[in-house]
Specification:
The chain is an all-alpha fold and 78 residues long. The protein has two helices and no strands.
Length: 78
Amino acid sequence: MRKIINILTVSLMLSIVLFFSNAIFAQTQAPPPPQTHGVSGNVPGGGAPVGEGIVLLITLGAAYGARKVYNLRRKLAE
């Protein structure tokens, strides 16, 4: 009976140590960056040149639409 109590005591102590060791080695989060509102670096999107991308998308969309219309008219003419 004494041997079983020793084994249970050792296993209980080991499980407690393993359970709480996670909290001991936990790392805290890094502090947030300073708030600089109104500065050009804090613009949504990171200051990406959106205008050039929109022109490209409109041009590609118009070319795709023109191709579809051309193919449709050519198919109807046959």
